[in-house]
Amino acid sequence: MAEELNPFKIAQEQLDEAAEIMKLDKQAHAILREPMHTLVMNIPVRMSNGKTQVFTAFRVRYNEARGPAKGGIRFHPQESLDTVKALSAWMTWKCSLADIPFGGGKGGVICDTKKMNDKDIESLSRAYARALGDSDMGPEIDVPAPDVYTNPQIMAWILDEYMNISRKKEWGAITGKPVELWGSAGRTDSTARGGMYVMREAARMLKLNPKRATIAVQGFGNAGRYAYTLSKEVFGAKVVAISDSEGGVYDPDGLDLDKLDEAKKKSGSVMYYKSKKAKKITNEELLELKVDILIPAAIENQIRADNAGRVQCKLLLELANGPVTPEATKILFEKKILDLPDFLVNSGGVIGSYYEWVQNQSGDYWDTEVFYSKLDKKITQSFNETMAMQKAYAAKGQKITPRMAAYIIAVDRVAKAMKARGWY
Ligand code: NAD
User: Fold this and answer.
1) 312 CA to middle of ligand 1, Å?
2) Does 236 map to a domain?
3) What's the structural domain count of the chain?
4) Ligand 1, pocket residues at CB < 6 Å
5) pLDDT averaged over consecutive 10-residue blocks of the chain (424 residues)?
């Protein structure tokens, strides 16, 4: 991995920049530059073929000053400790910006689930839970959730193993569970839905009519597919381009969900979508389309110094984690594109997880309307606070990006909690 694209280096650079702007205490800065707890585990798993395979796995609790660690578990062949460290830092800022009582955490296992059967995925998930045990996981310690290539079923296996160890029915030990195991109504699409509430507020600020706006979405997984359906359902907006890892499709008249699903199912990619005006495009071309709103919802480092100059949207919603590099952030800012940062835009996922945890801890379960209206209120508040912080600095003659404004709010809250606890 090129050093400038190392996610943990990027996370540290972002923190350093915020620390300088907000004149953060040097001791607080030193604590916040590194994760507080890093677990690297080599886990032997007896596979269904009778052989034992050793998997390298990670769990990082970045900072717990404001509450138990919170963050997903990734099962990915290219997983690395630096990626997990970066994501755990971003979770810390995300939970803080959303003002929910969690610190930041993240986990990962180096594995290729596409080459594993369900039995082996279950064995690995249970072994991961055993490696953490009830001293490194639990509703008051560290609360994992699904992430790339993990899902509610995997959360259920991990929870079952955890309960075997702890001998306690602590449903809040993990979130993103199936509803049968007290997962929350509304949690599944909460990342994209939260992003849509941010889109509504930002569009209002930019005087863009979402009903008339054109939208391009990169990614057709949990985040991207729901961003597509909700843009249409909730706002009546027109999504003109979408992609997956193979490539994308553009139709100026808008795209139809059934046809997208059909192309994906039959031919393996949305790029094979058929309509009168449909045109195949690459992922690079999608990012450079002349649309009002661009939603990267796939993977990190998609908009970099080499292509940021060609991005043409008015509003960029970072629904993926880390899709825009620090250099690209500066270029977009100079081009006056409103680039809203990942840990604001995709915080609906962790806010949804928080609501699941609250329901598990209290035993009081809500319907989707309650869930959506609380989510809307919370994420709208984060957006308003971010914009207000940017304005406050502008009033002092200092132009800062929305990312830095969000960082300043999040870092300040964590620093104040550490100070109150006497850590510095
Ligand atoms: P997913 O695995 O469900 O979907 C990922 C999508 O990205 C797939 O459509 C895949 O084809 C596409 N993709 C993969 N490589 C690509 C490439 N090189 N170019 C273009 N597209 C590519 O994952 P997801 O849950 O939708 O997560 C997507 C992003 O959103 C990640 O950055 C994730 O960390 C972030 N995110 C997701 C959630 C959530 O609740 N799902 C919450 C917060 C953040």
Assistant:
1) 22
2) no
3) 1
4) 147-148, 191, 218-224, 243-245, 283, 297-299, 319-321, 346, 349
5) 77 96 98 98 98 98 98 96 96 98 98 97 98 98 95 97 97 97 94 96 94 95 94 88 97 95 95 96 98 95 96 97 93 98 97 98 96 98 98 97 98 98 98
Structure tokens at 140: 């008051």
Please work out, in degrees rounded to the nearest 5, the angle formed at the alpha carbon of residue 196 by the alpha carbons of 355 and 209: 150
Ligand 1 center to 372 CA (angstroms):
22
| Segments forming the whole domain that contains residue 170 | 37-181
98: Cβ contacts below 8 Å, ≥ 6 apart: 347, 350, 351, 354, 378, 379, 382
Residue 284 within any structural domain of the chain: no
Catalytic residues: 106
Say what the pTM is: 0.95
Report yes or no on 313 lying in a domain.
no
Distance 242 CA to ligand 1 centre (A): 13
Report the nearest atom of ligand 1 relative to the CA of 346: 43
Q: What is the CATH number of the domain that holds 55?
A: 3.40.50.10860
Cβ pair 106, 36 in contact under 8 A: no
